[in-house]
Amino acid sequence: MKEIKDKLLIEKYSDSISSYVHLDNVSLQMFEFEKGELMIQPSFHFHSIYFLVKGSVNVYSIQADGRQFVTGVKKEIPILGDIEFVTKKKPHLFVEALENVVVLSIDTLRYEKELNEDVLFLHSVIHSCVDIIQSVQHEQNCMSLEEKVIAYMKYQCDDHILRRIEKTSEILHCSRRQLQRVLHELMEKDILTKLSKGVYCFKK
Question: Rounded to an integer, what distance in angstroms lies between the CA atom of residue 121 and that of residue 106?
Answer without folding.
Answer: 12
